[in-house]
Amino acid sequence: MEPVAPRKAGSEQEEGFGVHSRRAADLGMVPNLRRSNSSLCRNRRLPGVFSSAEKQENLTSWIPENIKKKECVYFVESSKLSDAGRVVCACGYPRERHLEEATRPHAFQGKEWDPKKHVQEMPTDAFGDIVFTGLGQKAGKYVRVSQDTPSSLIYHLMTQHWGLDDPNLLISVTGGAKNFNMKLRLKSIFRRGLVKVAQTTGAWIITGGSHAGVMKQVGEAVRDFSLSSSYKDGGVTTIGVATWGTIHNREGLVHPTGGFPAEYLLDEEGQGNLTCLDSNHSHFILVDDGTHGQYGVEIPLRTKLEKFISEQTKERGGVAIKIPIVCVVLEGGPGTLHTIYNAITNGTPCVVVEGSGRVADVIAQVANLPVSQITISLIQQKLGVFFQEMFETFTESSIVEWTKKIQDIVRRRQLLTVFREGKDGQQDVDVAILQALLKASRSQDHFGHENWDHQLKLAVAWNRVDIARSEIFTDEWQWKPSDLHPTMTAALISNKPEFVKLFLENGVRLKEFVTWDTLLYLYANLEPSCLFHYKLHKVLAEEPERPACAPRPARVHMHHVAQVLRELLGDSTQPLYPRPRHGDRPRLSLPVPHIKLNVQGVSLRSLYKRPAGQVAFTMDPIRDLLIWTIVQSRRELAAIIWAQSQDCTAAALACSKILKELSKEEEDTDCSEEMLALAEEFEHRAIGVFTECYRKDEERAQKLLVRVSEAWGKTTCLQLALEAKDMKFVSQGGVQAFLTKVWWGQLCVDNGLWRVILCMLAFPLLFTGLVSFREKRLQAVGSPARMRAFFNAPVVIFHLNTLSYFAFLCLFAYVLMVDFQPTPSRCECLIYVWLFSLVCEEARQLFYDPDECGIMKMASLYFSDFWNKLDAGAILLFIAGLTCRLVPATLYPGRVILSLDFIMFCLRLMHIFTVSKTLGPKIIIVKRMMKDVFFFLFLLAVWVVSFGVAKQAILIHNERRVDWIFRGVVYHSYLTIFGQIPAYIDGVNFNMDQCSPNGTDPYKPKCPESDAARQAPAFPQWLTVILLCLYLLFTNILLLNLLIAMFNYTFQEVQEHTDQIWKFQRHDLIEEYHGRPPAPPPFILLNHLQLLIKRLVLKIPAKRHKQLKNKLEKNEEAALLSWELYLKENYLQSQQQQQRQRPEQQMQDIGDKVDAMVSLLDMDHVKRSGSMEQRLGALEEQVTQTARALQWIVTSLKDAGFGAAVEAPTLALPKACEELDGEPGIRKKAEEPGDRYHVHARHLLYPSSPVSRFPVPNEKVPWETEFPIYRPPFHTAEKKDVALVDPVGDTPEPLTRIRYNALDGLTDRRSFHGAYAVQEGLPRNPMGRTGLRGRGSLRWFGPNHTLHPVVTRWRRNQDGAICRKSIKKMLEVLVVKRPGSEHWALPGGSREPGEALPQKLRQVLRQEFWEPFEALLAQGTEVYKGYVDDPRNTDNAWVETVAVSIHFRDQNDLDLKRLNSHLCARDPEVAVRWQVVDRRTPLYPSHKSILQKAAALFTAHY
Questions:
Q1: d(CA 202, CA 960)
Q2: What is the pLDDT of residues 1170-1180, one digit of tens each?
Q3: pLDDT digit string (tens) for 417-443?
Q4: What is the C-alpha to C-alpha distance for residues 1386 and 1378, in angstroms, rounded to an integer?
Q5: Cα 625 from chain centroid (whole Å)
Q6: In the chain, helix, strand, coil percent, each to 5?
Q7: What pTM does this model have?
C-alpha cells in the first residue's frame, strides 16, 4: 500500500499485507499472558466463561495497564490549514484537541515537530464493545492501540480477553480501498467462497476495516452469510486493522473506562477525507500514531501482527502446525503490488482474483507467461489497459519497478494462484485458497513424507476432507498406513469423522493403530466437559495416597478406565482392563526430539515410532476405540468404529448400556436426551444384525445370544440387553423364540399345555408318546430319561410350583378359617414345613452367585425385584404371626396377623400370572395404574381432610375421643364419596337417642350442636348442605373423572408397549424357573439338601446353565463371529439402501443432481466460450505471424533493389494480438528451464541491510543493453577486520592499488569466466547488472572465490544394501545448518588468503583431520567452477566457487570412518549431518544446483 498524505473524498486507499523480517516480541514480555489453570472443581464442568460483568471489569483493569495510545504533547503550528480552514498542529489535530500542557511554552519550542520526541504513549481510552447505531447488529469488539504495541500483546488480547479461538488459517484480504465494480457473478462467487473457507476452516479474515473497497466487499460477504440459513452461532471472525486518525466519528468510541457498548454512527456522506468503520466486521484494532488524517499508519503493525500469528503453533489432537497464512488480492494499485511482492518474497501464498480489476488483472494476464516474455513494453501495455485513468502518472522508472516486481512474483509461481471464474476447472474461491496453500506447502523443501504429512495436517486442521481427497490422497504419493496414525489420532480427538472414514479407506487398520499407549493418550485428551472425564478423575481422586517417592501428578491408567466402565456396564461383567502388577505395564516410549511434546509429556508421533517388539496391543482394539467414542457421545465416530467391529451385536448392546447409565447421571437435559437417542440407535443396530442372523440360521443366532464374550467382560448379549433394559431387543422374535425354547426345556414347543398338565398329574403317560421331545435320544417312547427331561423342563417346574402354591393357599385358608386350634394341628404344622421350604428357596435365590459378584451385589439384585420384596415381607409377617400364635396370651393377635399375611401370599399369585400372554400385560397395566392412584390420593386427601375438619368443627363441639375424631374427619368423609351421607348433616334424621350428648358413650358419636329444650339441631343447616354439595361436586364428578382419565391415559400409553414390557419381564420368570430345583414345595427341601452337600461338603461352585451362558471353543467362536460380521455387512448395505429409498433422501439426491446439472451446463457454456476465445486467439496469432512474414519479405525485396516507385504498404499488427493475456491454450505454458541471467543477485532487498536495489528487469541485465535511467545505489558494509577487506570504494584513490584480473598478492582476482571489464576503478559483474554498486557485504571487489566440498556416500538400509529410488541409487551428502538459518548448506565457503580449507569447513572438523581432508580434496572430482548467483553479489563484487566431489563408495572406507569420528561443530548451535540427496532437500538454491551436478556425476537419484 502506498503511504499517502491526507486524502480527499473518493481518493484511493489500499490495504496492506506484508511480512516484516524482524521477529515479533517474545511472549514472555506480555504481562499476565497465560491464565492459571484451575484445578478440577467439585462440579464436573470446567470453570465456564466469565460473566458479562466480570469480563468488563477484567478488561477495564487489564487494557489500560497494557495497551497504550499515542498523544501529541507539543503543539507546532502547521503551514497547512485543515479542510475547515482552521489552524492545526503538524500532527493534524487543532489546538483544542491537544492536552493543556502541549499548548504552553515548552522546552521543544523553536524546533521542528518530530513524532519521536513530540508524541508520547499514554493508557488507551478507547476499547470495549462497539454497536453501529441504527443497524441492530451484534456488538463487536474494538481497541485503540499504539503503533508500537507488541504483536504478542494484541494476540493475547484477542485470544484471552476477547475469547477468540486460535485460528486454523489466517486470510489477509488486500486490494483497493476505493469502491470498485465487479461482475455480479464474480462478486457472488468471491463472497460465497471467502466466507465458506473461513467458516469451514475456523479462519480469521483480516482486512483494513473501513467501509469502502475490498473491505466493504468482505463485510458484505459476512453480512450475507449471517442472514443465510447456514449461519451458526459464532459466525465468521473478521478483524479490521485501521488507522485511528483516519476514522470518522471516532469521538464516540472514546471511553476511558471502556465502552460497553460504545455507539458508532456510520456516516458516509459527512466523512470527507476520513473513512467510516465497516459495520459487518466483528473486531477492530485501531492503530494510533498520534496524528490525524495520515493513512497507512496501520500497515507496519498489521504486517508484524500477521507475521506473529503465522509463527504461532496451534495444537489439536496431538498434531501441531504453524498457523498458515494466505493473501487474497482484489483489484488494487501500486501499494497492493508492493504488498503482493512482500508476501511472495516471504513465502506467503497469494490468490489473485482475475476480473476484479487493475493490479489483480495485470498479474493474472501475465501469470502463465515465461519470465523472459514479461518485458517492460508488455507491462506498459497492460498498465495502459487497466490503469487508464492514472496511466499518465506512471514514470519510466515506476514502470521498470513494476516489471521487476511482477517478474519476481511470476518467477515464484508456486506461491501465486490466479482464480479465473470457470476456467482451469475452478469453480469456488474457497477451493482456490486452500489449493494455493497446499501448492505452497508442496513447493517447500522437505524430504518425501514430511511434505505430504504437512499438507495432510493442514487439511485436518481445516476440516476439509474434500480437499484431502482431491489434492492429497492421489496417485502422486502412496501413503503408508503407519504414516496416517498421528493424523488419525488428531482426527479422533478433534471429532472429525469424515477424516477417520477417509483414513480407514486409505489403509489404516484399527487393530494396528490402537495400542496401549494410544489408548492412554486418547483418554488423557477426553473432552473436559464430558461426564466420563469427571468420573475418571473422581476415581483418580479416590485412590489411596501414593508414597512420597512416587510422582506427584496422578495419571490415568487403563485400570481406572475399567473401574468406571464396570460401574456403567454392571457387575455382571468382568473388568475390561485388568489392574497391572508392579512393573508389568508397558512403558510409554520416549518422545522424538523434533516433535512437539503433548499431554503428560508423551509425544503423539512417539507412540508410532517404536520397535515392533515393544508395541503393546490390546485384546480388542476396535472395542477400545468404540468405548472411547461412546463415552463422549460422538454419534458419527461411534457409527464408523462400530461398522469396523467384529463382535458387533454385543458391542451395540454394551454401547446402549453405557449410554443409558451415563444419561442417568448427566445433568444437562439436552446431553441426556442425546445419549438416550444414541443408545436407541445402537439398540436398533443390535436388533438389525441379530435379525439378519436369525433369518439366516436360527440355531447359530441363538448361540450368539448366550455366547460368552471375552471382549466385553465375559458376559453375553442377552445379559447386556437385560442390564441395559433394551426391551425392543429382548422382544425381538428371535430372542423370544430362544426364551420359549428355554422355557420348554427338552420338550417340543408345539406340545399342548393340556398334555403337559396331564402328564404331570399322571406321569406314566410320558411313556405313551403323548408329549414329544426335541432330542432324538428322548424320542424313544420307553426311554427312562424322558421322565428326567420332562420334570426338568421350566414349564413343568412352573406348573408344579403353581399347583403346589395353590395347594399351600388352600391349606392356609382352611387352617385360618376352620382348624386354628390353641395347639397347632397337623395341617398347621404342614403349613410351617411348607413355608420353611419356601424360605429355603428364597435363601437359595439370594445366595445363588454363578458370576461371583459377591453377597452384597446379589442382595441388591435380589431386593431390586418387587416380588422378592413381597416374598420377604410375607415371610417376615408370617414369622411375626407365628411368634404371637405360639404364645397363648397373644393367640388372637397372631391369627389376625396371619390373616393379613394370607392377603400378601395371595398377591403373590399375580407374579405367577405374568407368564400368561393374556393376563401378563394386564398386570403390567395395573402396576402402572397403582402409581396413578398413589398420586391421586394426595389430591383426594386435600378435599377429604378439608371437608372433614370443617364438618366436624361445625357439627361437634370439643370432641376429645381420637377414634371418633378420625371417624368424623376421614372415615365418614371418605364414605360420603360413595353415597353414605352423614345422618346429622341437615337435621332431617336428627335423633337424640342415636348419639351421646356429652360424648361419654364409647359406642355412640357425640351429638351435634342442638337445642336441648326443643330437641332440634342448632347448627346452620344451610351451610353444611352447601359444603356437602360442593364436596360431592369436586370429589365425585371432578376428581373421580380425573382418575378415570388418568387411568385411560396410562392404559393408552402402556398398551402400546405392554407387549414389549411383558416379553422383557418374561425372561426373569423363565430364568427363575430354569435354575429352580424341579421338585415343588415342600418336596423341594430334598433338592436343597442336595445343593447344601454340593456347596459346603463337596465345594462345587455354582455355575450358570450352558443354555443361558455358553463358552465356545476358539475355533467355533471365530467361525461364529466371522459369520456375524458377514451378516452385519448385509445389514449395513440394506440400511444404506433403505436410506436411499426414503422420500427425503430421494428429494435431496434429485436436488444434488439438478445442482450438478446446472454446474455442468455453466461449465459447458464457459468451455464453449473459452474454446471460441482460444480459436480466435490462435487465428489472430497466425495472422500476426503471417503479417510479420510478409513484412520481412517486403523488407528483403526492398533491400535487394526490387522496390517500386510506390512505397510498400506498412503491415500493422492486429491490436487484439497485442493484448493476448497468456491464457491457457493461447500462450505457451511451458516455463523456461531457467533464467539466462542471475536472479538472486537482483533481489530488491539486499540481505542483512536496509538497502534496496535499483530494479533491473531481465531484459536490462546485460551491460550491452542500454538502460539510461539506471541509477543503482552504492553500498559497502563495514567489516571489523579492515586489513582483510578491500576499501569501501566510494572514492577512486584507494582503488588504484588493486590489480584486477590478476593475482593481487595472496588475493586471487582472476575470474573463471575470463577477463572482466573495469570502469572508473571498479570491476563490472560479468553476468550483468544487479541494481547495486559497491561490494555489499563481500570482502573483495571483483570475484570472491569460495570452495564447496560435496562429500557424499551411498544411502544404505539396515542390511547394508544401497537404497534405490526409481531404479537409481540414492546418495547421502554431508550438510551443515547454522543458527538463524532455515536451510542446510554444503560445508564450505570463502578461504582466507593462503589457506586451503574454508573457515566454515574448519569449524566442523577437528584440527587433526584438516590435512587428511586436504588430501581428499586433491583426489576429488571437480563438478563445477564458475559464477554463483548469490544474493550478496553487486555490480562490482560477486562470488565464484569451485565445487569438488568427494565420494565414498564403500561404507567400510577408513577415510569415511575417520571423517565421521572427526566431525565436531565448535558452535553447539551448528548442526552437522548426512542428508539424503533429493530435489526437495532444504538447501540453498546455489548449493542445490551444485548437488544436482554431483548426483549426475554418479548417475544417482536427485
A1: 80
A2: 556 667 767 87
A3: 999 876 655 567 888 888 888 877 766
A4: 11
A5: 17
A6: 50, 10, 40
A7: 0.71
